[in-house]
Amino acid sequence: MSDTVIDLPADKPIITFTRTFKAPRALVWKAYTEREHVARWWGPRSIGPVEIIEHDFRPGGSWRYVQDVRDAGKVTFFGRFVEIDAPEGYVNTFGFESPFASTKGKEGRETQRFEDMGETTRYIGTSHFDDFASRDAVVASGMESGAREQIEQFANYVRELGQ
Q1: SS3 call for 29
Q2: pLDDT value, residue 2
Q3: What ranges do the domains of the chain cover?
Q4: I want to staple 27 with a disulfide (CB 3.0 to 4.6 A). Which of 23, 44, 84, 125 is the partner?
Q5: Please, which pLDDT band fits residue 105 given cuts at 50, 70 and 90?
Q6: Is the distance from CB of 63 to CB of 54 less than 8 angstroms?
Q7: InterPro entries per the record (predicted)?
Q8: Residues with Cβ < 8 Å from 61, sequence gap 6 or more?
Q9: pLDDT band at 1 (very low <50, low <70, confident <90, very high)
Q10: CB burial of residue 158 (10 Å; 0-12, 13-18, 19+)
Q11: Which architecture characterizes domain 5-162 according to CATH?
């Protein structure tokens, strides 16, 4: 059982992901935002390896990651970093292209927040959708298990870094 909480509020077309990491915010921020660290935890490893093609972490900078999904081909995830308020959080866009679906031109918006709690850090990620149908389609795609796996990978990586 993961310590990650995933919430789908009835009154807003969003998904929130909340997790407390046993590490100070400076370490969590570094691991979450720096290219060499992102490559170590991003994307659920159970479905295939990830290659970081681009990661220009600055306002207006782009990101592009490719996951080689076993038996399905390559899925490209992409977006831009919109706002950065280090180390409290940032806003980015998010889209993907794959052999079985394309959202080109349909980038969503995400916010990442990191609350300093001393020796621990509370992470709150929010995915924003235009409507409930879009949110619910993402949920129906099996997103939850992949999100839980990725956040758990991040928790394990931060634990390694802190040792």
Answers
A1: helix
A2: 63
A3: 5-162
A4: 23
A5: low
A6: yes
A7: ASHA1/2-like_C, START-like_dom_sf
A8: 80, 81
A9: very low
A10: buried
A11: 2-Layer Sandwich (3.30)
